[in-house]
Specification:
- By secondary structure, the chain is an all-alpha fold.
- The protein has one domain.
- Helix content is about 70%, strand content about 0%.
- It is built from six helices and no strands.
- The protein has helices spanning about 5-15, 15-20, 25-55, 60-75, 80-85, 90-100.
- Helix 3 crosses helix 6 (about 90-100) and helix 4 (about 60-75) crosses helix 6 (about 90-100).
- The chain is flat and about 60 Å long.
- The N and C termini lie far apart (about 50 Å).
- The mean pLDDT is about 85.
- Pfam families: p450.
- Belongs to the cytochrome P450 family.
- Its main location: membrane.
Length: about 120
């Protein structure tokens, strides 16, 4: 399905359930979309919390980021994807925060017990 999104795929599965062999009700689709939304919201909020915490711990960098935002927004008048890409201090602060405090675990560690 070229150019489709998650909702399109789920609706396609629902419409072609006999061919595909998977049955999805409207409630199943709503639950999947809600799970995706909540998962994304939680990780974004965690990332924002940690970014602000790290910036508050580093007042000089906080000022650099604030000045950069004021400068870029003042020049362009609004926040867009292109203006965000120009904010090198902000991007660096966010990347460093992800390095220090990943919002979701990258690796799940498991403990194994050897038996003979």
């Amino acid at each position: 399905m070229e150019g489709s999104n998650l909702v399109d795929v789920l609706l396609n599965v629902q419409e072609n359930d006999e061919e595909i062999g998977v049955s999805l009700s409207r409630n199943n689709i709503k639950a999947i979309i809600l799970d995706m939304f909540l998962a994304g919201t939680d990780t974004v909020s965690t990332a924002l919390d940690w970014t602000m915490t790290e910036l508050m711990k580093n007042p000089k960098e906080m000022k650099n980021v604030q000045d950069e935002i004021r400068s870029v927004i003042g020049t362009h008048g609004r926040l867009t994807e292109e203006t965000i890409e120009k904010m090198t201090h902000l991007n660096a602060a966010i990347k460093e925060t992800f390095r220090l405090h990943p919002p979701a675990p990258l690796l799940v560690f498991q403990k194994y017990k050897l038996t003979n």
